[in-house]
Design goal:
Length: 526
């Protein structure tokens, strides 16, 4: 009998499933369910409830509940061998929180398969909507918590990150301040990840060290709830939080609801979920320190595995627990493809091939020309006022500006990842813009490291399936080395390797200080 493991990814816009056959090292099933299209009755746009305040971004948790039923129904329809699934794990969009009342425990334990999950669970919420990671309405609460914890450096060194608007602690504080009665009626606070795990386990699930680190509530070193952070956030918080645990740890057998309704193996194990970024680290096979990935999408993220959880004293980057043990780091640049596309459109360049040819026609280092492409407010470095800044760069020179946007993005990655103290051996590039050879060459030259392209459509769900396998093997007392588990699932695209050019690297080594000076000039000027 094939050993199958199911991984789920409850993201902002969709719920995805990946089933792996571990021994065959194969993904045997993939499916994604888009929330807006599949569940229009929840009236979300891109998975989020429309609202008047652009800073507030909430989603209805019952949407995620309904999606889980639909996805299992789809898997049954697609004849996935659910009776052979040995364990299930998953991941969720990070930071989002779900508020449950005193009916949650007994309701979860007695789910009736004759009813839908939504009908079973409609009465368990102390708050109808969930703030998600796109919410940035808690600047005041961030400031309050940061101040009580002793400033940026201390907040980051204790909890893994400075306070950020989307992080769960500031969100909980805002809820407590604005809706104290509902906060009081909340008996359990879950993350999206632990909430979804609770549905499968039929009981309140622990929060893992990866997603827990995205709350500003967990002691990043000791991996326990931090008393000072809890106190700075809201009263009686400890009693509302579940325990912390390793991602993939077995919670118990899957709820009979899924066995009776969808025919899943009654012995399938429900395990602890994590956040989507920690799951992607495993899904991309970054299980050893020094392995780094960049995801070049709407925004660009730079993340990797780190042995020691040392934190960024400037508070720009994050440290989360990694499902593979140890830590992972993450920095997020908002002006990724967003900026690349703005430059392309500004110079009326019809496609990326032409854009690439223009980049190649300008010299490495652009004769010292620098562009700061902060078309939108930037996360790293923190720039609240959007603006595009040119230094020794002629706005009319399309080629120089095309090269400059790529060089700035690569130099920013190098500059702002220095605190990680991770010397990458090789960088995996994913996301749409990883198809751009000139961008990959510049990243290889700036980082002085080879870059390979990796194509994975569902790295977070794949990471979750591997996490289920890991949890299953550990519970069975079997060997579960992460590098062996992930081997064969994540292969670089053949022939995609880009090697650094020594001469170019020398130019960029010298240019880094100049680039940092340009950033400082603009940031100091406010
Ligand atoms: C990470 C973050 C996002 C969400 C997206 O800190 O906010 O990447 O996890 O789902």
């Amino acid at each position: 009998m094939a050993k199958l493991f199911l991984g789920l990814d409850s993201s902002t816009q969709s719920l995805s499933a990946v089933v792996i056959d571990l021994d065959a090292r194969k993904v045997i099933y993939e499916h994604s369910l888009n929330f807006d299209a599949a569940l229009p009755q929840f009236k979300t746009k891109n998975g989020v409830l429309p609202g008047r305040d652009p800073l507030v971004k909430h989603s209805p948790p019952l949407l995620w509940v309904a999606a889980l039923d639909l996805l299992f129904a789809q898997m049954k329809k697609d004849k996935v061998a659910l009776k052979n699934i040995l364990a299930i794990s998953g991941c969720g969009q990070q930071h989002g929180s779900v508020y449950l009342n005193d009916k949650a425990v007994e309701t979860l334990a007695a789910l009736d398969p004759k009813k839908s999950l939504v009908d079973n669970l409609a009465g368990i919420f102390a708050r109808k909507t969930s703030p998600i990671w796109m919410d940035s309405s808690t600047a005041k609460e961030c400031e309050e918590i940061r101040k009580k914890l002793g400033g940026i450096k201390f907040t980051a060194s204790r909890t893994g990150s400075d306070t950020f608007e989307r992080f769960t602690g500031p969100q909980i504080r805002k809820f407590y301040k604005t809706e104290p009665k509902s906060y009081e009626a909340t008996t359990h606070i879950a993350l999206v990840s632990s909430f979804m795990a609770s549905l499968l386990a039929g009981k309140i699930a622990p929060i893992d060290f990866g997603d827990g680190a995205g709350m500003n509530l967990m002691d990043i070193r000791k991996k326990v709830w931090n008393t000072d952070a809890l106190k700075a956030t809201a009263p009686s918080l400890i009693g509302k939080l579940p325990p912390l645990a390793d991602a993939g740890k077995v919670i118990g057998p899957v709820s009979p609801y899924f066995v009776q309704k969808y025919g899943i193996n009654p012995e399938a194990l429900a395990t602890v979920w994590t956040g989507d970024n920690p799951a992607s680290v495993v899904g991309l096979g970054l299980t050893k320190p020094g392995q780094v990935a960049i995801s070049l999408g709407t925004s660009d993220t730079f993340f990797g595995t780190m042995a020691q959880g040392h934190t960024d004293e400037h508070g720009e980057g994050h440290v989360f627990g990694s499902p593979a043990g140890g830590y992972m780091t993450l920095i997020c640049f908002k002006n990724g493809s967003l900026a690349r596309e703005k430059v392309r459109d500004y110079y009326k360049i019809s496609d990326w091939k032409k854009f690439g040819a223009l980049v190649e026609s300008a010299p490495v280092g652009n004769h010292g020309g620098v562009l700061l492409p902060w078309f939108d407010a930037e996360i790293v470095p923190r720039v609240n006022k959007p603006g595009v800044h040119r230094f020794h760069l002629d706005e009319k020179d399309a080629a120089a500006n095309c090269r400059a946007v790529f060089e700035a993005q690569a130099l920013a990655m190098r500059l702002h990842s220095q605190w990680m103290d991770v010397i990458p051996e090789q960088i995996f590039a994913t996301g749409g813009a990883a198809n751009n050879p000139q961008l990959l060459q510049i990243i290889a030259d700036v980082m002085n490291c080879r870059v390979v392209r990796i194509e994975v459509s569902k790295s977070a769900a794949l990471g979750s399936a591997l996490q289920a396998a890991h949890g299953f093997l550990v519970a069975a007392g079997k060997s579960a080395a992460w590098d062996k588990l992930t081997a064969g699932f994540t292969k670089p695209v053949p022939g995609s390797e880009v090697k650094p050019d020594k001469k170019a690297t020398k130019i960029y080594d010298a240019m880094l200080d100049q680039y940092a000076g340009c950033e400082s000039d603009v940031l100091d000027a406010g």
